[in-house]
UniProtKB/TrEMBL annotation:
The keyword Nucleotide-binding applies. Residues 101-406 form the AMP-dependent synthetase/ligase domain. GO terms for molecular function: acetoacetate-CoA ligase activity; ATP binding. The keyword Zinc does not apply. It comes from the Bacteria. Keywords: ATP-binding, Ligase, Nucleotide-binding. One of its GO terms (biological process) is lipid metabolic process. This is Acetoacetyl-CoA synthetase. Residues 26-82 form the Acetyl-coenzyme A synthetase N-terminal domain.
Amino acid sequence: MPGPEPQWKQFASTTAARHGAPGGGYAELWQWSVDHPARFWRALWEHFDVRAEVGPASGDEAVLADATMPGAVWFPGVRLNYLDQILRHTGRPGAAIVGIDEDGTRTEIGWSELAGRVGAVAAELRRLGVQTGDCVAGYLPDVAEAMIAFLATAALGAVWSACGQDYAPQGAASRLAQLEPKVLFSADGYRLNGRWFDKRNDTDELLTLLPGRPHLVLLDSDDYRAIVAHPVDPEVTAVPFAHPLWVLFSSGTTGRPKGIVHGHGGVVLEHLKAAALHGDLGSDDIFFWQTALSWMMWNFRIAGLLCGSTVVCYSGHPLCPDADRLWQLLEDEKVTYFGTSPGHLLASRKADLHPGAQHDLRLLTTIGSTGSPLPADLFDWVREHVGEHVAVSSISGGTDVVTAFAGGTAGMPVVPGELTTRYLGVALYSWSPQREPLVNDVGEMVITVPMPSMPVGFWNDDDGSRYRAAYFDHEWADGTAPHVWRHGDWVTVTDSGSLIIHGRSDATLNRHGIRMGSADIYEVVEAIDAVTEGFVLGIDGPDGAYWMPLFVTLAPGRVLDDELADTIRSAIRTSLSPRHVPDDIISAPGIPHTRTGKKLEVPVTAIMAGHTDVSLDPRSIDDPDLIDWYRQRGAEHAWG
């Protein structure tokens, strides 16, 4: 029996149709949304009945007053607050937020108590002197009360920023000190992989590193429990559409982390669109994305509350005590939408799990995946071992826009190894160096029409120069630098409208003039059971020499002998091409990542090439000691 009509279809046939959207399928709706952005975003506003103190006036210019990138002006004159879009759901029964700790401890905040708890914390922030435009910071594990702290900050029109407690005090301060927060939310510590990490001393040290020594609020203290024991209705401050909601930080591996500022209105519209129209989230859903406060997916997960869904957070290691941990959580909490990473799905497969047979996952409708491209064989694994009823949504976006540019869309066919659609309102194209749109060929990912959730700007970037340099100052082959967003990914847009992400364009493998994406190689190599992870680099040497080594980490008990090396080479040659086969395969003690899981291809390539001007912040790396190991491998390489 067919299920209910996806929300994007309802939107297309009602609100969007009133604004001139053509009939037909998703492709026609997408084309209309990027050809007529003002009409599309107004239709979205009306479809979700966005709450505002002052709504948009009539006319396209009241939606998009200036479409120039960077600097597009959205909804001038509108005043609203992110929190108001959530408070409309507080009459619902059941849980708004569920928190699960690694040891199984469960906390629940009901919809009926959400407003009172947020109001109580917001009143405490006011008592501590926080005003509209001030900053409030979090140094926290992924617990339910962290979301309350953010919502209370938003209520005041103050600006939120946070990082996980896995950061050392200096690493956290490199981000949060830029904001000069008035208040710091923290906790005693967290459990990870069976261990308790006491963070009280680190919190004290962080306070000394933050300008003005902000007030401290401990979420697991008696003082905090006393605050939330006396609920009050929140006083919500209406702010301009582009008023800063939060500051997210770039990985900060090379130089000072960049503070990326997003506005209240842009986030509300973008997250309603992505979560409801594409993710199909609604009031019957339970939304769990395994994440941390340092990663933009924590911010995106809150979109579940905008849709009236229950949001689940988890503080702990996703594979503790074993690879089945999160699958058990899905059953226990009756999760309908589960967000994870390719690494977690790969670990589940290599542990020979059969989650669909081992757990009752009948309510699970979608598995989302991000962080890196999801290999085609993991789509197949989900279908075979989780359930044919579960759709896979591989998404691609970023901290930059705190959403996805493309990914799964409810009701649309899923092709293994591909992102199903470009999201509505996202004018994403693959461009050649000559700025020619490409179909079924690899090119630079560009966005040619502004989106409301593009950054308001960067923190402490008054003239906008850092912001322009990050996305807009790329010089194309014809010598121009047009006003388009260049994201830094290689992408193929297929003739059916789906996408394939090939990896970062600034970490391109370019052997003998042939461009190759590292993600294509990882998909093949990491499918081999003996390999836990791959890391391929293209390193320029003297006199035009080029070295393409592949570093691998191996499963316990496995060694990189000639047989395994031949297996790896054969798999790459057969699945990709002979030119993709690396020059050397080297067993490594680990692969360096940012703290949000991105492989550090660009800086490590430069370091191995012998560049001495690479400013690499060890506080932003999951295992900084690995960098010297790779530096030594580069120094030892004999260029032929």
